[in-house]
Amino acid sequence: xxxxxxxxxxxxxxxxxxxxxxxxxxxxxxxxxxxxxxxxxxxxxxxxxxxxxxxxxxxxxxxxxxxxxxxxxxxxxxxxxxxxxxxxxxxxxxxxxxxxxxxxxxxxxxxxxxxxxxxxxxxxxxxxxxxxxxxxxxxxxxxxxxxxxxxxxxxxxxxxxxxxxxxxxxxxxxxxxxxxxxxxxxxxxxxxxxxxxxxxxxxxxxxxxxxxxxxxxxxxxxxxxxxxxxxxxxxxxxxxxxxxxxxxxxxxxxxxxxxxxxxxxxxxxxxxxxxxxxxxxxxxxxxxxxxxxxxxxxxxxxxxxxxxxxxxxxxxxxxx
Length: 320
Prior knowledge:
Elements: H1 2-34, E1 36-43, E2 55-58, E3 61-71, E4 79-86, E5 96-100, E6 108-112, H2 128-131, H3 145-170, H4 173-195, H5 197-303
Parallel strand pairs: 2-6
Antiparallel strand pairs: 1-4, 2-3, 3-4, 5-6
């Protein structure tokens, strides 16, 4: 009886210990999950050397590890990398992820670029499919490191090949001869300049003197302009005042003449309507009188004074 009771007691104690161990394990798991946050990164480049469990660093400081790696189903050009980082890691707006490769060890995910005072990276409820397609925030990638170099290697090789072909086409025998001729002409030109160095120096000196003289002439022109301004201010202004006075006097005389013409206008009308016709008749009479006098004068000249009082004498008749 005692043996059976001891077995029951031992079994109960074992079950209690197992239950406590299970509860402790669950608590540790929940505690570990509570101190970590998960993010997704979509790389559009090869992730060679990166594996599950690879280190995640923030500005070189270990901050977490890679949880999973796989192709993105929506677009196979992208590789989705799930990472978990410590809760105190500042994953803020501006943070970007880079794959840092190594020739001697596994690659790592490097995070940096957070801005002080920026809000943390999170899920936008209005754009949940874009910001959190798999339920966790997304950290934008940035090409860099050996992976970026390897990805751009084909383009670099293609550009190097194109550059080599162009250089080969440029450095033909004909172009080389042209380049040699250009170099020879350059040497001749340099020698000619060296021979003409004294003349060039003299020309530069004369140019310097000419520039100085031009500056002096410009200064004199400025002084002349100032003098002209003074003369205009001293002589022209009084003359303009006198001219203004003369114009005012002429205007006054014109006004007076207009008044006099206005006053004389009735007399002029009477002169034009009465005096002028009478003067015309007088002139007509004088013309008639002059004609009569001319006729009398002709008679006196031809017949003498007796022609004025008698008839003209007939000529004597003589027979044959």
